[in-house]
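Budget justification note: compute hours in this period were largely spent on complex prediction jobs such as the one shown. Inputs:
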Amino acid sequence: MPVLLATFQAATLVLMLAITHRPLGAFMAHIFTSDKDMALERGFYRLIGVAPRTDQTWQSYLRALLAFSVIGFLLVYGMQRLQPLLPYALGLPAVPPGLAFNTAVSFVTNTNWQNYSPEATLGYTTQMAGLAVQNFVSAAVGIAVAIAFVRGFARRTSGTIGNFWVDVTRGTLRLLLPMAVLGAIVLMIAGVIQNFHGFTDITTLTGGTQSLPGGPVASQEVIKELGTNGGGFFNANSSHPFENPTGWSNLFEIFLMLVIPFALPYTFGRMVGDKRQGYSILAVMATLYLASLVILSALEYAGSGTAPMLAGAAMEGKEQRFGIFATTLFGTTSTLTSTGAVNSMHDSYTALGGMLPMLNMMLGEVAPGGVGAGLYGMLVLAVITVFIGGLLVGRTPEYLGKKIGPSEIKLASLYILVMPALVLVGTALSFAVPAIRTDVETTSILNPGNHGLSEVIYAFTSASNNNGSAFAGLTGNTPWFNTALGLAMLLGRFVPILFVLALAGALARQDKVPATAGTLPTHRPLFVGLLVSVTLIVTALTFFPILTLGPLAEGLR
Amino acid sequence: MTTLTAPTPPETSSAPPPSRSSRGAFSPSSLLEALPGAFRKLDPRLMWRNPVMFIVEVGAALTTLLAIVEPFVGGPGTSGGTAIPGSFTWGIAIWLWLTVVFANMAESVAEGRGKAQADSLRKTRTSTIARRVTDYQETEDPAAGASDLEDMSSADLQLGDVVVIVAGELVPGDGDIIWGIASIDESAITGESAPVVRESGGDRSAVTGGTRVLSDRIVVRITSKPGETFVDRMISLVEGASRQKTPNEIALNVLLASLSIIFLVVTLTLGPIASAVNADVTLPILIALLVCLIPTTIGALLSAIGIAGMDRLVQHNVLAMSGRAVEAAGDVTTLLLDKTGTITYGNRRASEFVPLDGVTVGELVEAAALSSLADPTPEGKSIVDLARVLGVDVGESAPGDVVPFTAQTRMSGLDQPGGTTIRKGAGSAVIVWVEQFSPLHRSVRAQLDAEVEAISQGGGTPLVVAVATASGECRILGLVHLKDVVKDGLKERFAELRTMGIRTVMITGDNPLTARAIAAEAGVDDFLAEATPEQKMELIKREQAGGNLVAMTGDGTNDAPALAQADVGVAMNTGTSAAKEAGNMVDLDSDPTKLIDIVRIGKQLLITRGALTTFSIANDIAKYFAIIPAMFVGIFPGLGVLNIMGLHSPASAVLAAIIFNALVIVFLIPLALKGVAYRALSTSRILGRNLLRYGVGGVIAPFIGIKLIDLVVSMLPGF
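Corresponding output:
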């Protein structure tokens, strides 16, 4: 029976994604290559003084992106600090600087790590005008970078990779907003709340009183999933019944997280003029996704230990209304995209099962990854794979007609370096500096030993990958974690973007080499297999040692 | 109409020239010979150019230091909850040093193979006495018979100096013959003992310093500066002294360096992270982990692979002026092949005289033979020969002014003293010439066209012969049928190239019809007919504009611009110095089909790098399964399940991994030097095979290797 239910859920999801893959992918290719602006967009471009038909070099694209993000950061930070002055503050005080910094960074970087309980910290204005706006635009930034990178492959001998302002505007106005409106309606139908009631005091059946928060949840919820953001309206995130009431809303939220990342490979194939290339990237993402889902589900179904035996299943931290598969499906989706939304406590998964969400993020969130970020991350890995594969067939490696020479490899390698370095150094510093260590061990870690280490590893992995989910045992609202995780999010987002855009520039400058019988084919199953292996091996080699100390040592007893 | 047929031309063999020596084999004794060099290379100032091996050396030094200090601070103690035997640190230190030495040995062996040849080349460079013409007058006294000569050391010769060399003397420097003809022994450079003929004013005018003039007297203008001669460049090339890293090698180095950095971060952070769960590990074990993880195998062999690649070319008697050119050869997508000598057996021979209506055979044969008397080309000679066979003897020397063939006029001929002029050449060119006098009669034109067509379609080359009298009466006598013979086995080679993704284009001066017939017979993909040097250049540029990489061979001065433009330009050693200067490779055997071997060697070089990189990274998986459980199993016994090889003890597991890591370098030296076997298969199949061998093989091999070494190590006391 559980197998049947699981299969049904999985099949529905696959069907929904299969239906949307092509039209949405083609639509995205259209909006990012179209020459026409909508009247609203023209007005906006005039307002900010941008010439929409002027393409930018990678440097100026990057400058625009950074400027845009800095402004976004200052707005969110300012709103939190000035919260009492804003309408609909629900009487909540100003957010302290450390937390405000962490939160602002978290939302601007599409991470949505929350070191606070949202319903008890942020009013509606900050949530909607601050965080929700970032939910849209930070997602649009990710897509913009991916599109700019794809243009690097598509263009020949060009100094430019598109216009950032146009990409972000179109991504927000033409793609995310209409989809969010549709999605919000569906969520409301499914039972997600949408109101401005503030807190409602009720008397429970047993006679006690309870203060129930209300709020514009559906509108936040939809972009939380669609933009692979993950920042919940409530602290319990998608396990809260107001955010995710039923099995159907659960499946729909999972679909929302995957719909854009899985459609982007089609956009990529369309834009480079060879759809097979898009399909092979899609195949890599789907393979990794399925493998991870199957392993996590198997581990959770198997359960282990006394408690699961007594309970009949490893249900600790999981919602009864979802059951195991709807939970592992959500958890896998959330950590393989950069969403970080949770409908269960990853901390409470079986010891080995808890390693999977971590491993998913350690892959670099490329299967299918965050909106845009997943595609560019995977394409960088493809560049590395093509380099090794190209040497193996005796040709200077080329991908989509672009030679992968020293400068391209340098940028791709630097990209690959950033995330592991942030995770490892962040985790190591938490224990290497005595003062910090004391703080971490006494204040932050809930469960000492291997599991406590896992909590810290998870936090830095989540932050550096801009995921935002947590091993909930960790108390993150401390000066060390607010700062360190904030920096990890910041560097984990923008340093890779710097390298991707530079790589896009280097590729766009090149002419295209025609494919011959001697070229490494990048649309065949063999290449898909090679790219899957490279993704896995790069991750395994980097993180195997610390995983042995965390979840493996805990699970292999 | 009478046609006369000549006997078929004698077949000139084009068997590959004998390789200079059989140094292809790899002998274990060469490893020992390389040992001193390997130790010399331990100098950190040299090592740091190879970041991967530099990390190993630093690790080795650090471990040695720890091994010395340890006894004074109470022994190695415990690591990760396991007691470490006292000799462990020394074991690690020794094997780390050996890892570095093995890497240096690989490079020394590769270099050693070039050294022997460099030594023999150096002997040719010993300075000789050059006899310089002090006041050379090019027009009055081209032979420099009356000029003053001064003796000077060949080392002092300057660019542009003119020297006289007579039989028995060594050529003092690189240059072009400006007067005279001589037979020259070039065995010092090419290894070929048969003397070659060099003469002024053609495409065979270059002489190389160090070769010996066997007969006659020549005047040579020096074309290279002292210290920059061909031999000098050869020496530095075969020694690997002037080896510059190629783009792919640089890219690979970047990738290896960044992998090393990742693993450095992994190891550096592992200490504090392990301490969080009270699983502190000692420094020697962390160093061992680091060395096992960083791609030492490929890092150790990378430069040996590059040197060996150049060396393989040298064994094929090809000198690459840069490694970049060798690498480009692997990427070539368009091969320009001259028809003559490459696709066909060099010489076209006259096989038939075809007179037009109203012309006797004798008349045609005589005119054709007369105009060919002074024609030094094999075609010209074959016409005279055929005429002789047919009983028409026109004597030995040409009566009148010879009009030489040029690529522009595409005609040659003879202006006789009486005012009669004879022209023979390509149909279109001769028609233009004839029509200067009077328009061609339609029926003549029709017959001519029909005959040209008939010969061309048969793959032959029609030469049209025309004669004009002093009074301006001009008529076309007929045609000479020149026949080309396509070499055996070429069709298969071109098919092979096609599967490698390489398009072949035949370059010929023939008319399009002839070219098409030969192209079809030889199986090339495309052809350029009636090619002039300009057209050839244009073709290269057009191909390159489409993103193709072009390789070509050439020997003449007019090939020089195209050789320079091509991505891989192979100059024939018999060619002019201009051609040799312009190309980026020189084929000492002057065999144009060598181009195909060069492409193969280029590909092999890249594949070898890719294969060893894949192998090196794939090895890490097994090493992890050896080291990681060993590091922490004392504290977390559950991790014992990861010890899937069933290694004896944590200490033996770590040491076995390190020993495997060092020994695998030695085992792979022969592969690095010989190169991975390359067969012309489809790209997918090559990738599949190599992934299976070096990827999957690279995952499995160390599991077996480490287990076997562990069996031996476990017998050591304490382990």
